[in-house]
Amino acid sequence: MTVVTTGTPTDPAMGNPGFETGDGGAGGNGTVVAGSGAFADYALDPRFYDELFRGDGQPRDACQRLSAALDRFPAEELVKLQEGVYRRFLHEGITFTVLGADEVSEHIIPIDCVPRLITAAEWRHIESGLKQRLTAINLFLRDIYNEGRSLRDGVVPPDLVLGCPQYRVEMRGVKVPHDIYVAVGGTDIVRTDTGFAVLEDNVRVPSGVSYMLACRAATKRSVPGLYREHGVREVEGYPRLLYSTLASLSSSTTRPRVAILTPGRYNSAYYEHAFLAGEMGVDLVEGRDLVVHNATLYARMASGLRRVDVLYRRIDDDFVDPVTFRRDSVLGAPGLFHAYRAGNVVLANAPGTGVADDKAVYAYLPRIIRYFLNEEPILANVDTHLCREPEGLAFTLDNLRDLVVKEVGGSGGYGMLVGPHSTAGEREEFASRLRDNPTNYISQPVLPLSRAGCFVDGSLQPRHVDLRPFTLHGEDGQNVVPGGLCRVALRKGSLVVNSSQGGGCKDLWVLRS
């Protein structure tokens, strides 16, 4: 494999999910073009960590077998490989739903055929960091809904927690089974040239695990020999682990009855709800299927009412129970929260967990870890400026051109300003929002996300990626499935990983050794 250097290195440029950077193509300043044949269009850029190649253009140790195999593949074979994984997604109906102004449409998730590799040592680091983080989050949630020591001790400002839109006063003093508020966590992790960092905690209703499983099935079937040669750790046991985790939260002495509560087929993650229900062998229910009698939850079945012991809810707090929360909700079940408070049904995740994935509270997670565990954080946070603080607001206003500004409760890229790709008018309008409601915003630097090899437009090219591993926390401890939803920005130069904006997914191979 040959290495050709072109241009001269430039200062590191930053990038962040949700906008596009420069071209990043072959021949630009500071790029290294690696290889020939299948890699003829593969351009390395010193601004971004490459998952496949070192900076000198040689394959990373763990990727030598993969890169050599890809380099040997004729172009037509790579085309067939890509078509094969796409057809599997098409035949399986692996879709996401887009809600438009006038219609609801479903689209096939774009999948890339080239796996991303994580070494055993790298995964041990990620896994230990995820377990530490979720342990601290559960302790924090238990504390803020009971004793409140962390608030009195100034670990997190009380007004930030108590004023958080996701804080539920109804959860004060509620006995949560085994003190596990978050049974299923999905943590967004990025890699830069300084290592892995947590971009966001998702502990309300994290989604995406079904796409992880679908990517694995499609890729494993397409390159079975290469898969075996790499000694990849398996992820197929996730549904079994999920059921065991949920069932362990129940006090039932017999086999607990678990059900998944979905908003319905128009929800963007409905495919996942149906998939997991089928894989676990549990009921998939909507709010209209549920009834509460004598503080006990039942599902209406053809054979009559069937008790539900554990409800894996995939709807937000506000819609769970129209008696306790939003009175106009038709997605939940009247009296459900009453049955939960009475201890007759388990809700996973517990209501009120959204405080822990608020983007302002996120900034305090390192302090939360130190306070509750007396440990240093294993996984770093991204530098975050809180606009609720005068110095954070001033810094953000002075540097809008260079920052990403987000709403503390926002998701999916909405309510966000990307400074480097904004106009003067957009920055002026956003500055007005910041001054009017500074507590609603945080700002972060633009991140240089790592890039992984993808088969795009008939050749192998680098594209930006992130990763969402899933952590399960039950009575018997924690499990981190050795894999995750690896999202990829398929458009050239883009860092947009969201499927609705041109992003896709690929398989993540965690190596055994």
Give Rg in angstroms.
23 Å
Report the count of strand segments.
26
Tally of contiguous helical segments: 14
CATH class of the domain at 383-445: Alpha Beta
- Shape verdict: globular
Distance between the termini: 25 Å
Helix percentage: 25-40%
CATH architecture of the domain at 383-445: 2-Layer Sandwich
Sheet-strand content, in percent, reads 15-25%
Biggest sheet: strand arrangement: 6-26-25-22-21
CATH topology of the domain at 383-445: Dna Ligase, domain 1
Low-confidence stretches: 1-30
Structural class: alpha+beta
Main beta sheet, described?
Answer: 5 strands, mixed
Task: Write down the overall mean pLDDT.
Answer: 89
Secondary-structure blueprint:
Layout: E1 3-6, E2 31-34, E3 43-44, H1 64-72, H2 75-92, E4 95-99, E5 104-108, E6 111-118, H3 120-144, H4 149-152, H5 158-162, E7 184-192, E8 195-202, H6 209-222, H7 224-230, H8 238-248, E9 258-261, H9 270-280, E10 283-285, E11 290-293, E12 296-301, E13 304-307, E14 310-313, H10 336-341, E15 346-348, H11 359-362, H12 365-373, E16 380-381, E17 385-386, H13 390-398, E18 403-407, E19 416-418, H14 424-436, E20 441-445, E21 451-456, E22 459-468, E23 470-474, E24 477-480, E25 485-489, E26 503-510
Parallel strand pairs: 6-26, 8-16, 9-10, 9-14, 14-15
Antiparallel strand pairs: 1-2, 2-3, 4-5, 7-8, 7-23, 11-12, 12-13, 17-20, 18-19, 18-20, 21-22, 22-25, 23-24, 25-26
Helix pairs in contact: 2-6, 3-12
